[in-house]
Hints:
This protein is of the alpha/beta class. It has one domain (21-174): LmbE-like (Rossmann fold, 3-Layer(aba) Sandwich), CATH 3.40.50.10320. It has 7 helices and 9 strands. Helix 2 (33-49) runs antiparallel to helix 7. The longest helix is centred in the first third of the chain and has 17 residues, at 33-49.
Amino acid sequence: MPAQTIELATARQVRRNGASRAAHRLDVIAHDVAEVISSAGGTLFDRALGGWEVCVYTADAEGSRALRILGVTGLPFEQGIASAGRGPQALAVSAAALATDERVRDYLSAVLELGDIEVTIFGEGLPTMRTAAGPALRRMSLAAKAFKGHALDAAAIPHGDIEREEYFAAECIGF
Length: 175
C-alpha cells in the first residue's frame, strides 16, 4: 500500500461538512524532539494542517514550544509505547529509537499486529527490515517549510536552508 497523502482541499471540505477534525491519528515515537523536527517536522505540520491528530512521544516532548509551532502535541515517551492497543492510522518511528530501544521494537510489532497501518521510519541509521516500498520522498508545503524553520529555531537546532523534501523509509511490514 503506498503512503497516503491527504490533499488540503479535501481536508477543508471534510471540516466544512462537519466531520471531526481529528478523523485520523498519527503517532510519532522518537528519543528526542530535535530528531523529530529535523527529520519530519514539515511532514508533521502538513498532516496536522490536513486535519490529522499528530502526537509526538519523546522523553522531552511534553510542553515543547517547537512542537506546538508545528501544530502537534508532545507527550511522554512511555505513554506512546504503552498506547499500541489504541491503534493509530499511521505511525512514524525514529530509526535511532528503533535500532536502540527494544521497547520501541516491541511497540512496532504490536501495532503491526493490528493490521492496516501506514508505518514510516525516519532519521539516520535505518535498521535492516523488509518493506513494502523503498525510501519515500515527501515534498512539504511552503507553509510547512516556514513553520519547520521556526520550530528548529525554537528548539535551538542549528540549520541552513531548509529543503522542501523530507526522506523516509516507508511501509514497514517487518524487521
